[in-house]
Each structure stands twice: as structure tokens, then as C-alpha cells.
């Protein structure tokens, strides 16, 4: 898969999310999944047009050897979401990750479950970093001559 998803609209990103979940799909598959996901029904031709645009951008690949065409994402979801988050942090918060985290924590919109998960992630990360920076002890003893 390629490195970074090109600029896409919100609707195109929603289609990408459906394709990541499905792994591959026809226009009808994507349309059905989007309707189930959002409760909003898009026209078949709208989904077909959006998939065509995503193909032109290199974001999806269409298997045109079969009918109906089968579309597959050409970018990994995790990489795309990380890149989009980085772009958001850079654009909105001038690259200050701690401001994003503090804003989320101060918003009061996080559930206890979400806060617990964040705390656990921070503890795990701190433990991992302490282990990585801990000096290693040699098991070989040096005998005096």
C-alpha cells in the first residue's frame, strides 16, 4: 500500500472507512454499508462518482475485469488516521499535542471509561519507557587476575 492518502472530502473519507471495514466492495456494497452506518441514504450514482474520484486520486483500486467493479483501498487505515490527526494537530493547535490532550481532558466530554483507558495507556507507556532506559546489567563477572 502507498504511504499517505491524498486530500479527500468528508464523504470520500466516509467511503474509505467503509472500504477499510469491508476490505473490498462494489458500489452497492459501499452504499448499503454507508446507509446502515449513517442512516442517510446516498444515491447509487453518488457513491459510484465518489468511488471514481477516489480511484482517480489513487486512494482506491477498481477491479474492472469483473462486473460489477470491485473496489479496494490502496492506503492503510491506521496510517491514514495518524496522518490526518497529525495534520489536524499541526493546523489547529500549531503542532502542540499536549494542547490537544488538555483540551480533550478539560472539555468534560470524556466518559469514565475513556479516561480510564487514557490513564492505562499512559501508565503502560511510562513503564515501557522506564524499561527501555534502564541500564542493562551484565551477567558476566570479571575475575581479578
Any overview of this molecule?
This protein is mostly helical and about 140 residues long. The chain is about 60% helix and about 5% strand. It has six helices and two strands. A two-stranded antiparallel sheet has the order 1-2. A hairpin with a 6-residue loop joins β1 (about 60-65) and β2. α2 packs across α3. The radius of gyration is 23 Å and the shape is elongated. It starts with 9 loop residues before the first helix and ends in a 12-residue tail after the last helix.
What percentage of amino acids are in beta strands? Answer: 5-15%
The oligomeric state is single chain
Tell me the radius of gyration: 23 Å
Question: Number of helical runs?
Answer: 6
Largest sheet: 2 strands, antiparallel
Distance between the termini: 59 Å
Q: How confident overall, as mean pLDDT?
A: 90
Structural class: mainly alpha
Q: What is the molecular shape? A: elongated
**N-to-C series of helices and strands:** HHHEEHHH
Spatial order of the strands forming the largest sheet: 1-2
Features:
mainly alpha
Secondary-structure blueprint of this entry?
Blueprint: H1 10-22, H2 27-38, H3 44-56, E1 60-63, E2 70-73, H4 77-92, H5 97-106, H6 112-133
Antiparallel strand pairs: 1-2
Helix pairs in contact: 2-3
Briefly summarize what is shown:
It contains 6 helices and 2 strands; from the N terminus they run H-H-H-E-E-H-H-H. It is mainly α.
